[in-house]
Design brief:
single chain; alpha+beta; 5-stranded mixed sheet; two-stranded antiparallel sheet
């Protein structure tokens, strides 16, 4: 039985005739306030629900790389004011040029006969990239081609789509009863999202750092691999895998241009440092977490007192500590013409407190 009144049907037909079905929220009205949503409106609402933070975006992009068969994933992250910029570069199967825009439309997927169910739910419905686009429109494929990996860049105003306020504290990683690394503590920030993903996918090398650090890492890894294979001897840099392209640059100016083409924004001074070998490669993210430190002591006699007295610092004390070292840095900055690129990173382990400053020099 069709419960929609002639009046309601006429109204829906009028809306459809004027704006098309894409703007029509209601497919059917049942009276007393009950309606059946149009498919596009239901998708839009689901997309808004799926992505509620920058950390959600990072996880979806990592899952996207994983499902593309990536064995290496590089995450470059920076924040300037309220704007968070992230580039995710992988060596997966890539996206053909004809699909660079279309993959952000709903229900578009390459996984016709398969989907993945993991800790974050179902993946493969063709909704993840659409959900990101619905919440943060400034997302795009910077570079990709079939068989050459991909670079997806994402820029977001954190006043619109929020992120955790503490983005410098690393999570604590312990070993499970099965001996696998697992995140046990720490704020639910971008670092934790990436580390949790890396713990669940140790077969994938995951790197995270600033744009300059990631550029240096990809350059060093590509050059070291090319020394034996000669893979970088090509006429057209776009014939290389996306993550290897920096290493084919002939000079600093070209390196800046190539970096920008894959979503990495670096200065020419940074490019000179990368080319001269001053830039060191980041280790895979799991190597800088507690799991590695525990692996090195696995054969030693257990120290039950030490293991039970892991250093824990209250978040309020960490904030005060960060303020103090930031103030101390100001004196150095004034005397040596340097500045801090982002807040200092603090990592607390069982036996040490690691503080890291990302700096740059004034021109």
């Amino acid at each position: 039985m069709d419960d929609m009144s002639e009046e309601n049907r006429a109204l829906l037909d009028l809306v459809t005739s004027v704006s098309g079905t894409s703007y029509r929220k209601v497919e059917e009205a049942f009276g007393d306030g009950f309606v059946r949503l149009h498919t596009s409106e239901a998708e839009r609402r689901q997309a808004k629900h799926d992505i509620r933070s920058v950390e959600d975006v990072v996880i979806e992009l990592l899952r996207n790389s994983r499902d593309a068969g990536a064995s290496r994933i590089f995450i470059a992250s920076s924040r300037s004011g309220d704007i968070r910029s992230i580039a995710v570069i992988d060596d997966g199967i890539g996206v053909p040029l004809s699909m660079h825009q279309r993959i952000f439309e709903p229900r578009v997927t390459s996984k016709l006969d398969s989907m993945v169910i993991d800790s974050w739910g179902v993946h493969g419905r063709g909704m993840a990239l659409y959900s990101i686009k619905a919440n943060a429109p400034d997302v795009r494929v910077a570079a990709s081609a079939t068989g050459l990996g991909s670079a997806i860049v994402f820029s977001n105003n954190c006043q619109t789509l929020p992120e955790r306020s503490d983005q410098s504290t690393w999570p604590i990683v312990d070993l499970s009863e099965q001996g696998s690394p697992v995140v046990t503590r720490g704020p639910h920030n971008i670092l934790r999202s990436v580390v949790e993903f890396a713990c669940q996918h140790p077969e994938i090398q995951v790197y995270i750092g600033s744009h300059a650090e990631v550029a240096a890492t990809m350059f060093v890894l590509a050059v070291s691999g090319a020394e034996s294979s000669g893979v970088l001897l090509v006429d057209d840099v776009e014939g290389l895998n996306v993550w290897q392209r920096l290493a084919a640059s002939m000079d600093a100016a070209e390196l800046v241009v190539v970096a920008s083409s894959i979503g990495l924004e670096i200065s020419e001074r940074t490019a000179h440092r990368v080319l001269s070998g001053e830039g060191k490669a980041l280790p895979p993210i799991l190597e800088i977490c507690n799991a590695i430190e525990q692996d090195t002591t696995v054969d030693q006699p257990p120290d039950i007192y030490k293991n039970r007295k892991g250093l824990k610092i209250h978040s309020d004390d960490l904030i005060e500590f960060r303020r103090g070292i930031t103030a101390a840095f100001d004196g150095l900055a004034e005397r040596y013409f340097i500045y801090m690129k982002e807040e200092p990173r603090i990592r607390v382990t069982r036996d040490a407190i690691h503080v890291r400053f990302e700096i740059d020099k004034e021109d």
